[in-house]
Amino acid sequence: MDLFSDESDNEMYEIGVFDSEGIVDTENRRLYNRINYRSEFSDSEFTYRFRLNKTSVDELLLKITPSLKVISSRNNGISPLHQLLLTLRFYALGTMLLSVADFIGVSKASASRIVHHVSRAIAGLYPQYVKTLSNTQNAFHEITGFPRILGAIDCTHVPIQSPDSNIGEEYRNRKGIFSMNVQGVCNADLLFMNVVARWPGSAHDATIFNNSRLKMQCEEGLFGNRWLIGDSAYPCTSYLLTPLLNPTSVAENHYNEAHIKTRNTIERCFGVWKRRFPILSLKIRVAMQTTQAIIIATSVLHNICRLNNIRDVDPEVAMPQESGDITYAEGIGQQNHSVRQQLINNYFSV
């Protein structure tokens, strides 16, 4: 039986339903038409629908194909390209799996498995694309003149479905929504340098940082005399600078103004990331392991887009707006204000 249709490079897959005697029931046969979207759409149309351009998709496909379950073209096999495009479309829409399954031409069960495997494969590229860069201070200095900045740090909530009746409340954040609290660090060009996606929504930002490998690296002096810059949720230390809650002098006000404008890069980074992949703002309805893989995979894809100058796109769906940050009295953890005060006196005093 010929399972392929050569028209427009599209593939027509035919699924047979067997009766009790093992004979194909032709009346209940289902047809899936898998379109070759790479040739179907122009470059701009392709990028709008899948968030990556054709060149970036080709390069990514070469890197993740060894990690995917490659299925032959016989027996209704799903090509690695279709698996990748299905997953990218899922990220771009943030909708039900059935919608992207119909878009590519697979069953819902197949779509679920594909999203899991492809997300893990892309997340496996994290060390290659999400890493601490050596020369970040110059670009940060150009923003407001703030010296020696390694990166801007903050956390953002990614809505999810309740994972389990026993542990679900751990994932309920201060707004009463089930979420993952995701830590991110970026440079001045909005490239992620660190992403942690394993903490429930109830976790405090400082708790995530205090238990991270990044903090250990900072305490070991791995980044030299460069600083992270974060909001008042974090403790002020010799390697992480926070704003003054009650500035009194001109120098302290100058410091706070420079701090806010410099730290704004991570807020912008989160915004660009979530607008490009609306699944991060619309509730993720998959298993927890797949959710974590999706968060890491989209951070990798975000960096790929930034590195390849793929322009930011407007979302196809309405994006929920996040309310402003909470002002904390002090971050959780041991405080060390001496470095911050020395910086204010030596650098921001008029």
From TrEMBL:
Keywords: Hydrolase, Metal-binding, Nuclease, Nucleus. It comes from the Eukaryota. It is found in: Nucleus. Residues 153-303 form the DDE Tnp4 domain. One of its GO terms (molecular function) is metal ion binding. One of its GO terms (cellular component) is nucleus. The keyword Nucleus applies. Its cofactor is a divalent metal cation. PANTHER family: DDE TNP4 DOMAIN-CONTAINING PROTEIN-RELATED (PTHR22930:SF289), PTHR22930. Belongs to the HARBI1 family. This is DDE Tnp4 domain-containing protein.
